[in-house]
Amino acid sequence: MNSSDPQPGQRALRRGRWSEQQRIYLVTTVCIRRRRIFASDHCADIAARAIADPGKWLGATLLCWVLMPDHWHGLIELHSDIRLESVVASLKGRAARAVNRSLHRKGMVWAPGFDDRALREDDVLRAARYIVANPKRAGLVQRVDDYPYWDAVWLEQQRRG
């Protein structure tokens, strides 16, 4: 079974859901058995680069994300008829292949499935703040800026402006 294929119970949770163009989703996915795979800076750096590569987000935009030691949160905006499941499967596959290649191993990195919530426009910035503050709330850093494995498009806009 592919690491992004949902289990039967997870498939049932997806039943009746659809992916909407121009909709922003808060997505969470966890490491297999909640292992702290990304507690290693080496693995976190490799996975973060694979996930954040803007050239790989065809049909979607990654607006904001954080890679925690045992899970990932992101805000994903869909632009085409692509399904959210396909976008998440792609990001999980890219990260898993990159980590496994760097460690010269095979095996699952991510647990099957993911959680998602479609956001209203007025909830997007609140969700982004929640995402980027995750490392501070978890006690990994004192300041959000001290954590290296996150980004948000709003920062890039500030850098250019």
UniProtKB/TrEMBL annotation:
Molecular-function annotations in GO: sequence-specific DNA binding; transposase activity
Domain Transposase IS200-like: 20-134
Any one GO biological process: DNA transposition
InterPro entries: RAYT_transposase, Transposase_17, Transposase_17_sf
Gene3D superfamilies, per the entry: Transposase IS200-like (3.30.70.1290)
UniProt-recorded name of the protein: Transposase
